[in-house]
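From the methods appendix. Each design record in this collection lists the tokenized structure first, followed by the designed amino acid sequence. Records were kept in a plain field format so they could be parsed without special tools. The example shown here is representative of the layout used throughout.

RECORD:
FOLD TOKENS (439 positions):
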């Protein structure tokens, strides 16, 4: 992937050469068949002085192209079918300065957020949600979660977060909530006090999470009550307190969580004390499944966890059930796959294949027949979690790869995502996406 470090003036020249015009002029796509206006590129600076002023000029189909600089503001995107893109991922920087709430808040269908950096916001770096009242998002309230009213808050449709760097944000780096038909890809998240990447509260989610790096967070990736189809593939979740979680709870709608495909990921060394504290105190876990159901974990490399590589437990009174762990590589874990569920919500139907050489607690997790597998949970042996660090006090990430085709206005987002087939996944090397992590 080529790296672009062009000033906006150079990109404007590229626009002119490629498109015939750039600033507030038609982009690479023609006017629609009904004779509507052709998509435009709106530039900041040039057409507007701030990101929000530029976004307010957008019409459906347009692209906001942000020039290099520091944007000390919150950006609300309320126009459907637009693209928000930085001219340089590492030099277009939204800075919350430890005092602003949201970096980029998307409340319209069909929005892409691409090729920029967002850091030091009290809540979220990028939030995509159908649960809002105008510019006031209610995905996460001060005193807890607001319960979803499907009549009042229909799920947002079609979104993409691509080539975005989010670090040192108070809750989530990249956050999709009450939203369907989305993609979070080729992005980076660190220093989040909750999770680096979060997908929550959706049925028939149709979400693909692919090619991302999450390190130095309380949790690398978290899913709460987000159900099939959801595919998490080809990611690196390393150096967090917990690598990833699939959970069911009553705080959000659509419980229980079910039917995710987790394939071809590197989940490694998630016992990093130099991270924000995890709210439930967990530490040293690769993949935690708390009340999640019918999830497939296939061809993952899960290594270096002093608690467990995969840990099954109940989520409130939801049982962790029908988990299939297939064709994965384990090494350096105190337990490779363990069950610590409470008796009142005992885990059932969970099994590991092949089980030879895999450290199981209890051994019944190696049953040949998943459908009838049952086990008696073992006592948890969690290592003591070290004190956490402030999310504002963690090192910045290294420069990250750029998006190609900066000047080109993309086609509208698809109605349905293309999901990779987990059967084709292969166990990744331990060096997966290593060039993108902190030294």
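DESIGN:
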């Amino acid at each position: 992937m080529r790296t672009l470090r062009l000033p906006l003036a150079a990109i404007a020249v590229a626009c002119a050469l490629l498109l015939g015009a750039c600033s507030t002029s038609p982009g690479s796509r023609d006017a629609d068949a009904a004779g509507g206006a052709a998509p435009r590129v709106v530039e900041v600076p040039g057409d507007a002085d701030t990101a929000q002023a530029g976004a307010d000029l957008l019409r459906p189909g347009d692209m906001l192209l942000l020039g290099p600089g520091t944007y000390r503001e919150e950006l609300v995107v309320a126009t459907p079918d637009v693209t928000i893109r930085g001219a340089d991922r590492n030099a277009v920087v939204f800075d919350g300065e430890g005092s602003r709430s949201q970096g980029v808040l998307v409340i319209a269908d069909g929005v892409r957020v691409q090729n920029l950096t967002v850091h030091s916001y009290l809540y979220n770096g990028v939030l995509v949600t159908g649960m809002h009242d105008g510019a006031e998002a209610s995905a996460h309230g001060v005193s807890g979660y607001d319960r979803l009213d499907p009549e009042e808050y229909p799920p947002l449709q079609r979104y993409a977060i691509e080539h975005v760097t989010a670090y040192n944000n108070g809750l989530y780096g990249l956050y999709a909530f009450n939203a369907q038909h989305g993609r979070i890809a080729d992005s980076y998240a660190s220093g989040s006090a909750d999770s680096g990447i979060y997908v929550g509260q959706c049925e028939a989610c149709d979400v693909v999470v692919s090619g991302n790096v999450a390190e130095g967070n309380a949790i690398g990736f978290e899913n709460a009550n987000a159900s099939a189809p959801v595919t998490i593939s080809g990611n690196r979740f390393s150096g967090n307190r917990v690598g990833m979680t699939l959970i069911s709870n009553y705080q959000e709608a659509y419980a229980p969580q079910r039917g995710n495909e987790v394939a071809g990921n590197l989940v490694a060394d998630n016992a990093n004390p130099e991270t924000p504290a995890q709210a439930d105190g967990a530490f040293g876990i690769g993949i935690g499944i708390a009340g999640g159901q019918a999830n497939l974990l296939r061809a993952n490399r899960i290594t270096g966890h002093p608690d467990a590589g995969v840990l099954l437990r109940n989520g409130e009174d939801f049982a962790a059930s029908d988990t299939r762990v297939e064709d994965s590589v384990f090494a350096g874990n105190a337990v490779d796959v363990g069950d610590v569920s409470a008796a009142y919500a005992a885990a059932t139907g969970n099994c590991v294949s092949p089980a030879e050489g895999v450290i199981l607690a209890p051994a019944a997790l190696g049953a040949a027949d998943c459908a009838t597998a049952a086990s008696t949970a073992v006592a948890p042996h969690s290592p003591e979690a070290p004190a956490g660090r402030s999310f504002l006090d963690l090192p910045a990430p290294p420069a990250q790869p750029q998006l190609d085709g900066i000047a080109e206005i993309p086609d509208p987002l698809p109605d349905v995502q293309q999901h990779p087939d987990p059967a084709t996944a292969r166990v990744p090397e331990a060096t997966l996406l290593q060039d993108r992590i902190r030294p």
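APPENDIX NOTE: The mean pLDDT is 89.
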